Amino acid sequence: MFATPFLDLPPLAGAAGSVQLPGSKSISNRVLLLAALSQGQTEVHDLLASDDTRVMLDALRELGCTVDEAGNGLVRITGLGGLNGTLPRSPARLFMGNAGTAMRPLTAALALLGGEYQLSGVPRMHERPIGDLVDALRQLGCHIDYLGNDGYPPLHIAHGAGLPQLRLQEPIRVRGDVSSQFLTALLMALPLVAREQDIVIEVVGELISRPYIHITLELLARFGIAVRHDAWQRFTIPAGSRYQSPGSIHVEADASSASYFIALGAIATGVNGQNGIKIEGVGLDSIQGDIRFVEAARAMGAQITGGPNWLHIARGSWPLKAIELDCNHIPDAAMTLAVMALYAEGTTTLTNIASWRVKETDRLAAMAIELRKLGASVEEGADYLRVTPPATARDWRAASIHTYDDHRVAMCFSLAAFNPARLPVRIEDPKCVAKTFPDYFEALFQVAQADSGHVPVICIDGPTASGKGTVAAEVAARLGYHFLDSGALYRVTALAAVQAGINLSAENEAAIAQLARTLPVRFEGSQIWLGDADVSEAIRTEEAGMNASRVSALPLVRKALIALQHGFRRLPGLVADGRDMGTVIFPGAPLKVFMTASAACRADRRYKQLISKGLSANIFDLRADLEARDARDQNRSAAPLKAAQDALALDNSTLTIDETVSQVLVWWQEHQPFATAAAG
What we know:
Blueprint: E1 6-9, E2 14-20, H1 25-37, E3 41-45, H2 51-62, E4 66-71, E5 74-78, E6 92-95, H3 100-113, E7 116-120, H4 131-140, E8 144-146, E9 155-158, E10 172-175, H5 180-189, E11 199-204, H6 210-222, E12 228-230, E13 234-237, E14 248-250, H7 255-267, E15 276-280, H8 293-300, E16 303-307, E17 310-314, E18 320-321, E19 324-326, H9 334-340, E20 344-345, E21 348-351, H10 363-373, E22 377-380, E23 384-388, E24 399-401, H11 407-414, E25 425-428, H12 440-447, E26 448-449, E27 457-461, H13 468-479, E28 482-485, H14 486-499, H15 509-517, E29 521-524, E30 527-530, E31 533-534, H16 542-552, H17 555-566, E32 574-578, H18 581-585, E33 591-596, H19 599-612, H20 619-635, E34 648-651, H21 657-670
Parallel strand pairs: 2-15, 3-14, 6-7, 10-11, 18-20, 19-21, 24-25, 27-32, 27-33, 28-32, 33-34
Antiparallel strand pairs: 1-25, 2-26, 3-5, 4-5, 7-9, 8-9, 11-13, 12-13, 15-17, 16-17, 21-23, 22-23, 29-30, 30-31
């Protein structure tokens, strides 16, 4: 997951391949609560690992459920057994983050089970309405108080000793035109008290997001509750209802998350002879309403086929066709249509989306603001959005997309990187996707491709012990880019040659070069692997450094490693450090930094480094060795150490690592087409 302040997406050219989607958030949190209310143990397979499910799991543990996280998406829940089983632990304080799928159903269930609870969340959760659900529960006789503003969390539920005296004879009335989660919460909670009589829920007004109620009813049936409904306005929970674990249940992949890759397949051309995107984990027979996004994408021109657990999407009509659509049946996925509209001919109108305003943010306002940044003409109404794309490629603008701590805003606007103007797009706070799809950007980069020249590279060159490796690694971490430690490549090459019994002399140059061409090296965080062996420590000895200097002076070895180093240039970008990154390996890099420090300063740094590791060292010998190594590097025939003509000089003799990193990031920001404060 990208935990950087922002993520810069270079212009993307095409996409092809296969994507395995994470489990559905809507299904995951419903299943967790239903398992907790049931008798027996439930094995939940393919559970979504996200912020929202973490909130629910933590709450269930706090309430006394046994939760066994076995790994690989398998969680075992031993339920409380409802009113005839173990009551939840009380009093309890539950933090619900910004998870509506946890806050609303838990509020209803706990209000009916009895006890004392306080439910709170992040500030945005305290702005999301819950008054209609609370009103419905108060009709029943539940005791719920607001701890802040009326109609909004945080909430206090308290019944004193025993259970509340409930009024179940009359239908429970709840509004359906604000959020379907209020009705879902009641449907999941009321079976707990349907002992001797049917319980009826009547929906007041139009029921929005009806497909999510369909999911709720399907899952209730899996746990033994057969709810009847009359035209989606009147729901009957039969007398004698009792939750019973199905034993094992699998969570479908998230159909809302599928919308981004359905759109990707509709927008992008193929790559490397492959055409289209295959989505695994959800198919045309999904119980999730957002699978009907397929119909909308087809109407815009996408070619889509599918089976029970897969979809395949390819570009059809181009440009896409503008549509006018009532989106009540796909409230979350409809956001993706707003970005697809950027690639359509004409004006796309999305209606019946008032529920967007009470989600993680006011999504109607957010989408309008961010679409305009890209150059679109947008009309925003109380419950509709009208989007006209930029008239020509020249009218597109590079934009820094504010994501409002909303996962769907971040994922939607990543698709803007396919713009015909070949402009980059910045996604602010990319980690917000953790709410439902923590590895979204990694999944996108697995199938998307950019022209090599558009994948940004920052080169940080300089002499030994100038700090370039430490700085480059930190710059890469701050930007979410890949990191290439070219010095490590030479160290690994030397180590591999020694292990193969090859003497590191010029006479063996061809043999060492041949070994370097197929070097099975990879970087994983701070670890460096040679095949199946972690060689991170082995290549950091003084002897390894001297050996690296010897092989790096061999022209055939340097030439052999060029292609390997080019292979590290992958989405979303690369920070490369070495002695010839800007002059030989990536001469077209948009930012080149030549980092220097005095020999005395570098010797002092190396001395302190060795002493901290418990190794003996002589600072005068270290300085002499560094100066000798500088002379060799500057005078070698193959890629001598020197600054590229367009490199920016950075003497960090008196700077800390943080100060040096900040300066590099400031220079990088100055190369970007959108104005945003420098990271640091």
